Structure formats: structure tokens, C-alpha cells
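Fig. S4 source data, part A: sequence.
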Amino acid sequence: NYIQQQAQLLYDQIRKDIAAWHTIPFDMIRIDAFLDPVKQTLQFIEINTRNVGMHEICEWLDTQLSEVLSAQRSASLNTLLVSNQHQLQQEIVGNVDSLLYLSKPQIPRWLYFKELQRQYSEVVDCSDESTLTIQSDGVYYQGKRYKAITKKYCWPLSDNLLHLALTEKIAMMQPEWMRAIGHKDYLAKLDHPAVASSRVVVENVIQEALAHKDELVLKVIDSGNSKSVYLGKQTAPKAWKQLLEIALQQAGQWIIQEFITPHNLPIVVHGVGPAKPPVQLGVFILPDRQASARCVVDVVATACVGRPDSFLFDPSGYDASLLFV
């Protein structure tokens, strides 16, 4: 209930801050957070709005656990996500039955892909960007025009594709109006009790950042997958000062954030037994299509069983040190 309440507060703020949206503001976002088991409080550290991952793992875990526990599942995360996605695409570009699925060939198709196939009359899989033809009225693949597109762990969004999305000639998974919410400087604008303290790097924060290096994290605003993330406690003083100088030169492109130490939470590791590793939560927030003022929440936890002193949680990576629970 507490996670649901905090997620709803954040959802309310996001709905107010989006300049224009349709009947629902987005299909799904994921908040990365740490849970303090003593204080029973959450601390949000990231908002993921583009190419949101981990929902596939969450769905798989839900399926496995419901079978093991013989429990009835209340809902499917993938079903809710695809339903939201389908609704938004229809509102943006009109009636949509065919979907173009862009993804790298080595990425598993997961249960999410099966859900797409269930809700769309046709899902066409494309893993080679060079085979696409981008025109002013949409994206063509093998001679057919597509207006609805899902892009998962794929090549970077080209300027032409971005232009089509911004002018609503095509509808992408995670609508383009959410880009600003996913930028890390959005955290600095939020008045929310669970959001970690974040500030854009400007001249008057430099001295404090130098004095409290080990308590801070430096991040590029428009980055993802744990790229351009620097933990002060893992960075030498000289290198930290140089990074701050670069951040100051690139005005408005970096934030400084309080370092949140991951709390160790008890889990049972298959084949190992009880463990208490550092755990990060992925809190999925989806608009309720029946009442868009409400949100639906699901949670997956990422446990680090490697070297927690030097490990960055990166749910997009494939690392033997990560467990999903």
C-alpha cells in the first residue's frame, strides 16, 4: 500500500507536468528505487520513460510464482502495458491493427512479444534498420507502411523516426512527449517525499560537491543504462574535480544527486539458500485505462550478489551478479 501511495503521488505530478496528452498520459514508466526496511520508506532515484525494460522479467516471475504457489494472478503486467500502448497508438494515428516490432536479433522475444501478437492482428519482426524505408507518411518495411511501432533494446532512434513520432505520423511505444520526464533534471523539479535530492550542476553547487564527494553521484541528464554515472566514493578526488569542471562547462547537462546506499534485504537464492544482498526495486507505473487519474503498480526487485561496493545496478545489462526476485 505504501509503494502504491508514493507511486500515485508521483503519477499525479507527472500528469500535471505533461503539456499535452491523450486519454492516458503514457503506456508505462519504471521508477528505480531503494527501500529502507527500518524506516519503511522508499527513495526514488531514476525515472525510466524510454525503452522501459524489466517488465518482461517481472511477467516471467509472476507466471512462475503463481504456478508454484497455486495463486490466482490479479493481472498481467504485459497485458496492461500492451493494452495501454494499443490505445495510445490508435488515438495518435487512427485505427491500428499492424505493428512493426524493432529489436536486435539476439534479444529474446519474451512473453511481451506473445502479448503483442495476441492484441494486434499482425506483428512483424524487424531486426535490421537498413531494411526500413522512412518516408514522410510513415515507415515502410517489405513494401508495407506501418504507423504503429515498438522499439525494444534496438538501434538509436534516427532523426527521421523522431520527426515522424513528434509530428504523430507514427506512434512509438513510450510516446515522445515523455522524453522530458525521463531526463534526470526532472527529478530536481519534483516536490515529492520519496525522490532523492537532485540538483542541476551550476557554479554554486561545485564547492559543496567537492566537499561531500563520497555522499554524491554525478550523472549526465540525458543518458541511460548506467552510462555517464559517476559515484563520488569510487572516483579519485582529482578525477571528481575534473568531472565537475566538465559538467559546469556543459551547462544544464549534468545533475548531482545524493548517493543512496542500497539496503540489504533478505531473499532466498535458488541452489544457495538464504541471503541478504543489496536490493533495488523497479516500480512499474501504468495509467488505469478505466480511470486515468489512477495508476496501477507492479514491482520487481534486483538483487546484487556480486561486489556491492563497486557495482552499479543496470537492469539492461547481462551480469552474473544480478538476480531478479
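Fig. S4 source data, part B ends here. Residues 77-93 form the longest helix (17 residues).
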